[in-house]
Amino acid sequence: MTLLRKYKMVLLVLLLSVFFLSGCSTLPKPGPDTEPAIRQQADLVPEGTVLDVEVYDPIEGFNRGAYRFNYYFDKYLFLPVVATYKFIMPDYFEDRVSSFVDNVFEFNNFTNNLLQLKFKKTGVTLSRFVINTTVGVAGLWDPATHWGIHRQTEDFGQTLGHYGVGHGPYLVLPIFGPSNLRDTTGLVTDAVAFSYAGPPAWVDDDTTTLVFTVVSGIDKRKRMPFRYYGSGSPFEYEQIRLLYTKKRELEIAE
Question: Where are the domains of the chain?
Fold first, then answer.
């Protein structure tokens, strides 16, 4: 896929997002219509928790609109697609797809562990990729985990944080969800590196890359239990904002 075509796809998503946000001016109220298939804990932040982190959120209006957009996108498009996928695919084959997707994305784990000079984790990641690609038959199985060689997940947002880059303003990305300026930069960098130096570049086939992108997106959403407005709390936006920020701080500190 050419760089121009990729830019056109990103522009289309952004335009659709802005259009949808402009038409979604009311916040869905918790109830039967917004209750998720998997009910969340009523309070995402336990009562009595000291909220010792101030999250910089200068574009909160846009972020809340993006949060609403993600709710509708999830409810009327993404989750129905995921449900159809789960209905069609036997659990055994779903597991094979998940293993294959994880194995392909070891490229990001490898590059970011290497950039952070975490040589032991870099070696572990390389070992996992070799074992799962060979013994695990192109990554369809994950014998490395069964042998105690566990996944060392890293992304470029963590790499930036490792070198002292602050998280910057909080962002809610259409479709992708909670983020911040640093992590959004990391997301874009990982995507470009993956496309131009990772497995898609090795295969060099636009159709195969597109199919993988769609399937991996569905697989990732299938494995994520979170449902927008599923907590039953009127402060869900603030809670998610805090939890995301704390989670990323802990991941960077590892």
Answer: 33-253
